[in-house]
């Protein structure tokens, strides 16, 4: 993962923690990490943070967050 992608993923965690204040920050970080890991090994990385955000938001919302 590039430094830019790492920064964007860290910013994503911060945004989701703000969006889901009733969910522990560690849980949000775990959800993001799990969804990000789904894209390991993919050669085109440009939109991965967007896909991770969409998946994480769905997962957090469906968990009743």
Task: Please characterize this protein's 3D structure.
69% of the residues lie in helices and 0% in strands. It is built from three helices and no strands. The mean pLDDT is 95.
H/E topology pattern: HHH
Q: Tally the helices: what do you get?
A: 3
Describe the main β-sheet briefly: none
Mean pLDDT over the residues: 95
Tally of distinct domains: 1
Q: Please state roughly what percent of the residues sit in beta strands, choosing from under 5%, 5-15%, 15-25%, 25-35%, 35-45% or over 45%.
A: under 5%
Shape: globular
Rg over CA atoms, rounded to whole Å, is 11 Å
Task: Provide the structure class.
Answer: mainly alpha
Distance between the termini: 29 Å
Number of strands: 0
Low-confidence stretches: none
Helix fraction bin: 55-70%
Short summary:
The chain is mainly alpha-helical.
Features:
about 60 residues, mainly alpha, 3 helices
What's the layout of helices and strands?
Elements: H1 3-19, H2 25-37, H3 48-62
Helix pairs in contact: 1-2, 1-3, 2-3
